[in-house]
Amino acid sequence: MSDDLLQFKDYSNTPSTSSPPAQINVNSPSHSTGSGQSGRQRGDPLSDLIYDMSNSANILSGGMSPGGGGGGGKDTGLPEPATATPSKTSFLTIEYYQKFFDVDTYMVLERIANSMIPKRAPSNYLKSHIGLNPDLYGPFWITTTLIFCIAISGNIANYLQHQSDNYQWRYNFHLVSYAATCIFIYVNFLPGALWALFKYSLKPLQEGLETENADYTPSLLSLMCVYGYSLAIYIPVSILWVIQLSILQWLLVITAALLSGSVLIAVLTPALRNSKYSLFLIIGILGAHFLLAAGFMLYFFHVPANAAAAVHSTVETIKQPVNQALEATAKAVIGNITNK
């Protein structure tokens, strides 16, 4: 009795007048009527199960059509497997630029620190970090913050320069557009020119001296990312430029340009080594970085000659009563000591 339960039996279709006969469609060779399955016996449950499992796995992986063995477009009633074909998006859509903003806070802060502190980034930082995931999120917010910091701090510096004059001071909104134009040109056009020079001045490969970075040139987005982060140091410096001391302002210019410029050269070293004009490129990169800082200070914050004279006269005016008060205090203290 138990042996009969484990066996499959075929029943002939008995016509029924009340309802149509029930049909079961099983996609296995034991239930197919084609002649291609003559190598296997009909009614083997274990073989049917193995075949159905392997056929389902192939359907899910997209490796073969249902029905097995290149089944010639046979309709089995199963849906076609979904094939993951990469879709190409146009650069005019937002989805194209979404991957350049896929960063977290830690990564942005780490790249800001690497752009201001020399020798903090590894030697292959441009290729292994920036090149694999160049982002525009950090450069966008750094440049935007710098534009408004320069505009606001420049107006404050202008107010401090004319506070002693009979001058009705007004906020200069044009400083925002001036700063935005200057920064936009520097962050976009200079990396583009540098990228073209790297491509044009690439050294030819020499036999026996090939290395991993022998023909490496950074991408345009990598250069834009590096230059965007290199401006982060000018955000705190632009606030300190409000102090109306010419020596301090020039010291800030030199310090910020040297720190950020040295990091910029160190990061671009793998690409500079492959250029035939590496020395001229280094001079040009450092010169442009210094001119940017000097231009910011001279146009937005520099103390003019008349303002410097006014500051000097103000200091002298304050110094005189202070000296008199100190002399009177000293005489009083000496008189008390002699009386005792």
Automatic annotation (TrEMBL):
Source organism superkingdom: Eukaryota
Localization, UniProt: Golgi apparatus membrane; Membrane
Yip1 domain location: 122-296
Biased composition (Gly residues): 64-75
GO cellular component: Golgi membrane
The keyword Membrane is annotated on this UniProt entry: yes
Coiled-coil ranges per UniProt: none
TM regions (residue ranges): 136-156, 176-198, 219-241, 247-267, 279-301
Keywords in alphabetical order: Membrane, Transmembrane, Transmembrane helix
GO terms of biological process kind: vesicle-mediated transport
GO MF annotations in UniProt: small GTPase binding
Residues covered by region (Disordered): 1-47, 61-84
Annotated Polar residues bias: 10-33
Membrane topology, record value: Multi-pass membrane protein
Keyword set includes Transmembrane helix: yes
Main subcellular location of this protein, as a coarse class: Golgi
Family: Belongs to the YIP1 family.
PANTHER family with a match to the protein in the record: PROTEIN YIPF (PTHR12822:SF2)
Identification of the protein by name: Protein YIPF
Biological source species: Musca domestica
